Amino acid sequence: MRCKPNSAFSGSIAAIAAAARFIPSGVTSAARMAAKPTPLVIERAEGAHVFDIDGNKYIDFVMGFGPLLLGHTPPAVTKAVQRQLQKGFLYGSAHSNEAVLARRLIDILPCAEKVIFSNTGSEAVHIAIRLARAFTKRRIVVKFEGQYHGWFDPVCYGTPGQVPLVAAAESPRVHMQATAGIPPANTDMIILPWNNSAAIDALFENHGGEIAAVIMEGIPQAGAIAPNSDYIMHMREVTRTHGALMIMDEVITGFRMGLGGIHGALGVKPDLCVLGKALGAGFAISAVAGRDEVLSLTGRKTMPHMGTFNGHALHVSAALAALACYSEPDFYPHLYSRSERFARQLQGIVDEAGLTLKVSQTGALISILGLPADSPLTNYTDLHASNPATVADFAEALIRHGVNIQARGTLMPASVHDDAVLDESLTRIRQACASLTT
Ligand SMILES: Cc1ncc(COP(=O)(O)O)c(C=O)c1O
User: Fold this and answer.
1) How confident is the model at residue 177 (pLDDT cuts 50, 70, 90)?
2) Which of 309, 326, 343 is the C-terminal boundary of a domain?
3) If you take atom 3 of ligand 1, which residue's CA is the nearest one?
4) Which of 278, 306, 326 is where one domain is finished?
5) Residue 50 and residue 429: Cα distance in Å, rounded?
6) Which of 180, 245, 330, 371 meets the CB 3.0–4.6 Å disulfide criterion with 213?
7) Do 200 and 238 contact (CB within 8 A), yes or no?
8) Is residue 212 part of a domain?
9) Cα atoms in the 13 Å half-sphere on the side-chain side of 284
């Protein structure tokens, strides 16, 4: 099959330029700025596809940057939200579905004894960190280089794209600036290399009594880097021994790596886990789940948890409908086998084209890196060797051939990427590769 390349982007270019008169850069999240040839201006979306204002149709692997594990406009979620819409959507009071959703999460997440709701992943991470500090009465939080936990202080340091911080293990208090020219609001943050048990041991030996929590993605989205065997368990042991909390930030991995979260898949019980994105299948709901004695600090007002939109009735109804879909027996076997097959064939295509690209896949998370296919990938230093320009050029070629991926090479497979959609994607990707090499 020969696919017609998308060639016209003038509508998106003009619309972004016009929007930039009112919105800095014309986009409302920095992550959307990187897309080439232009941030797309989308007119509508359905299933596996998005349609831009130039009339181009794309097979979409951005999937809203992760929430759309069921694709665009999934009928079950749409119907549930429409039903709720008739009954009102923001009560400023409790409503029955909040407890139904909390109970469902407690049933499926191994670490969950209690649950609280908020709106975005960044907010929920913020709550989890405050809870850990309130519970332990300590201030220091440990994170890992190259891992992203939202854009709030103090976690917005050592994120993907920043220089590696391998010196962190020896000189752990890192003063990096997320806002140029302004010192970070809170420097009680230590950044360690990923997949390095010795660094954890050394840090806890010297600072164990000061550490409130260790927060991690479990499988870092940048590079989809799986943890070494025993690494997560080792961290569980060390944190427990020293009275620090283990926080699993599952905003990306939650429901993308299994119904029981990434912690269920890895067989570990963190003290807290943070959920967002796929929980609402496109509606803004996040949650912190975990130990009763930690979460109950909110109830006792030691740590006030507030928010006008917490437990928004539309978003809760979307989450309940989404969880019902994720609970179908075939949901994960299909999602994983297709993601694995797609990533393998994608690697074959780029290899055949002679492009220096490595395709890394774990569960329903695929990361394309500007590295030779056989490069090791265990930590952020390995990842940082990736050539971002190669990946961005590849992403642009795909967009020009009707396959929408993030400029940094992340793909978010969803249940709507069935075999036919994936086959068409591979055909288009083959043509995109040819356009890069001829
Ligand atoms: C692992 C992780 N944590 C937290 C966040 C922040 O979530 P939000 O963008 O909903 O604030 C993200 C967003 O990409 C994320 O990937």
Assistant:
1) very low
2) 326
3) 149
4) 326
5) 17
6) 245
7) yes
8) yes
9) 11
Residues 169 and 203 occupy one common structural domain: yes
Does residue 111 lie in a domain region?
yes
Q: For ligand 1, atom 6, which residue shows the shortest CA distance?
A: 150
Residues 217 and 252 sit within 8 Å (Cβ to Cβ):
yes
pLDDT for residue 181 = 58
Flag whether 367 is in a domain: yes
Whether residue 2 lies inside any domain: the answer is no
Distance 298 CA to ligand 1 centre (A): 22
Distance from residue 32's CA to the centre of ligand 1 (Å): 14
Interval between CA 269 and ligand 1 midpoint (Å):
21
Shared-domain flag, residues 156 and 69: no
Ligand 1 pocket by Cβ (under 6 Å): 120-122, 125, 148-150, 217, 221, 249, 251-252, 276
Query: Residue type at 325?
Result: C
The verdict on 223 and 95 lying in the same domain is yes
Q: Of all protein residues, whose CA lies closest to atom 5 belonging to ligand 1?
A: 150
Question: Which atom of ligand 1 approaches the CA of 277 most closely?
Answer: 10
Question: What six digits make up the tokens of 325?
Answer: 């879909």
pLDDT at 320: 98
Ligand 1 centroid, distance to 351 Cα (angstroms):
32
Structural domain for 399, as ranges:
10-73+330-437
Q: What pLDDT digit, counting tens, does each position of 363-391 carry?
A: 999 999 999 999 999 888 888 889 999 99
